[in-house]
Structure formats: structure tokens, C-alpha cells
Write a structure and sequence with these properties.
The chain is α+β, with helices and mostly antiparallel strands. It is built from 3 helices and 3 strands. It has a 3-stranded antiparallel β-sheet. A hairpin with a 4-residue loop joins β2 and β3. The radius of gyration is 15 Å and the shape is elongated.
């Protein structure tokens, strides 16, 4: 983890099990908090914030599962 208890975009994406672009979208929409640092405004994430996001956005059937578990699509499968 980066200094001061902050995770980089790569670290946070791996922690949540999502793509970096997903984290960018969530922060842009205000769904997930981040800290902007440096001239470029690089995103950094607090682990407590990521954990809170996981708790708040878990589906009922996945509450028993661990962090970063992939969600299944709700679309019906195509018949072969």
C-alpha cells in the first residue's frame, strides 16, 4: 500500500476485483470517494472507504462471500 494508508488506483482495483476504469467511473459519478494528489490529480483510495463501499453495495446473496467476488449477470443464458 502507498504511504499514509492510501492505495493507488492499481492497488484499489485489485483489492475490489474490478477494472481500473470502473474505479474511475465510480469516483467520477461520486459513488466512491477518493483523494486526488499531485499536479495530475492521481486518485488514491483509503482502505476504510473501499471496505465501506463493499458493505454498502453487496447484493443480498453475496453478503456471505468475501470482498471482490464477481457478480453474475442477471440476463438469461442463451440456449444452445
Amino acid at each position: 500500500m502507498a504511504g499514509q494508508g492510501l492505495m493507488t488506483l492499481d492497488e484499489a482495483a485489485a483489492y475490489l476485483g474490478v477494472a481500473k476504469i470502473t474505479l474511475r467511473r465510480w469516483t467520477r459519478k461520486g459513488e466512491l470517494a477518493c483523494v486526488r494528489i499531485g499536479k495530475r490529480g492521481d486518485r488514491r483510495f483509503r482502505q476504510a472507504g473501499l471496505d465501506a463501499y463493499i458493505r454498502a453495495n453487496r447484493s443480498p446473496e453475496s453478503k456471505a462471500s468475501s470482498k471482490g467476488a464477481a457478480r453474475r449477470s442477471q440476463r438469461p443464458r442463451k440456449k444452445a
